[in-house]
Amino acid sequence: MKSTNDFETVFLKESIETFESMKKLGDRTLERLKEEHFNHVIDPESNSMEIIIQHMCGNMRSRWTNFLTTDGEKPDRNRDQEFVQGKRTKEELIAMWEQGWTLVFTTLRSLQPEDLLRTITIRGEAHTVIRAIQRQISHYGYHVGQMVFLGKHLLEDSWESLSVPRAGAPERNKQDR
């Protein structure tokens, strides 16, 4: 039996914690937005909150469904359609967001330490499970950052920082002691 402190166990635990932290930033952003914010596009080359959610959820479904046994780019995925602006409601988009994350966490929690060095494929390219997880951490972090930026832009002066606010570090440092 492996120790709870071995690399594989710690990697899985900390990967889940990283995804949970990312999801929390997204959740806190989404809960602050009004219905009309979800379809707002700030310029022709930018994505709305709706498009970011559609894309992330399409990616989550494709990557995490049958994660160990099928290519991470499913043949029925229509990635281009994920970038088409629709008129989904806030409620529909949040439900979609939750479904995607449920799949991520269910799959991650089903992995065993011995799975980490297995080889899986994404778009026909071989990846260790470790590499595939790191790839998704990077990808989702990028898009959650876009969500936070867009939320901050849309809410302007009513935005409240999701972390230590500007000029708040000295006070935060006192609290951390």
UniProtKB/TrEMBL annotation:
Pfam families in alphabetical order: DUF1572
InterPro entries according to UniProt: DinB/YfiT-like, DUF1572
Domain of life the protein comes from: Bacteria
Protein name: DUF1572 domain-containing protein
